[in-house]
Amino acid sequence: MPESPEVQVLADVLDDAVSHRRIIGVDVGEFRSWKTRDRPVEGLVGATITGVTRFGKHLDIDTDRGDLVVTLGRAGWVRHRVEDDDDAAHDAAEPTSPAAAVIATVELDDDTALEFTDAGEWLSLALSLVDHPQDVPAVKKLGPDPLSPTYTRADFDRITVGRRKQLKALLQEQESISGIGNAYSDEILHRAKIAPTTHAAALDEAEREVLFEAIRDELAEAVRARRSIPLPRLKQAKAESMRVHGRTGEACPVCGGKVADVPGSKGSAQYCPTCQGPAD
C-alpha cells in the first residue's frame, strides 16, 4: 500500500511534469472507480492542470474545473506515460507490479498521459471529481499530517493521552494521524523502541516525546531517501529500507535480535522483541 512518503514523491514528480498541461481526453475503463457520478468524466476534457498535491495517502490533481482526487487504496498508483521514452526514470510506474491494470487514462496536450493503475486482486483505486478535496469523505476525515511543518506535539498528544488503543492500530488510524500505513507504523515503533501492542494511555511524557520524534523523523527521512530513487523502483527501495517490517526471522539491524510477527497480525506486521520489549 502506498504511504505518505511515496505518495509525496509521486505528487512532487507529477506536479513538475504535468502542471499547466491541458487535458484533451479522458477514458475510464473500469467505471466502478469513478465515484462522482454527478460529475461525468467528460467534464475534465479541456481543463488545465494547475498542480498536484497530497492529502494523507490520497493524490490531488487540481485543475481549473475542479480537483481530481485519487484514492490509491491498497494497490493503486498513477504513472506518467511518455511516448517513445525508454528512460524509466521519467515514468512514474506503479510501485506494485508490472502487470497492474490501467483503470483510467487522462490524455494531455503534450502527447503524454496519466495512467491510473491498480495491481490488487480487487479494485481499490477510486477517482472523484470535486470542487474541493475535502468534498471526498475519506479526505475530509483525515487527521493532522505529521509530514506537515505545522504538525505539533499538541496534535500528537490529542490522539494519545488517555487513549486505550494499541499504538500499532492508532498510528494507522487516518482520522487521528494521516498518511501512515502498515509498514511505516512498524518502522516508527521500532525506532521509538516501543512494543506495537502498547496502549497509548500507558505512555509517559518521555515516551510520548520519543514516539512523536520517531514519527516525524521516520517519515521525513523516507521522503528524502525516496527522492533519489527512480519512481519505478519505489516499491523495491521502500522494502529494502525496512528494518523490521516484512523481515520475520531475520536479525534486527540495531540489536541483532530476531524479528518476530506482531501477535495476532497473521504475519502482516513485525517488530523486534529485544529492542521494543514483548508484545502481549
UniProtKB/TrEMBL annotation:
Domain FPG-type: 243-277
Formamidopyrimidine-DNA glycosylase catalytic domain location: 2-123
Keywords annotated in UniProt: DNA damage, DNA repair, DNA-binding, Glycosidase, Hydrolase, Lyase, Metal-binding, Multifunctional enzyme, Zinc, Zinc-finger
Domain of life, per lineage: Bacteria
Keyword Oxidoreductase: no
Keyword Cell inner membrane: no
Pfam families cross-referenced by the UniProt entry: Fapy_DNA_glyco (PF01149), H2TH (PF06831)
Catalysed reactions, semicolon-separated: Hydrolysis of DNA containing ring-opened 7-methylguanine residues, releasing 2,6-diamino-4-hydroxy-5-(N-methyl)formamidopyrimidine
Recorded family membership: Belongs to the FPG family.
Protein name listed in UniProt: DNA-formamidopyrimidine glycosylase family protein
Species this protein is from: Microbacterium invictum
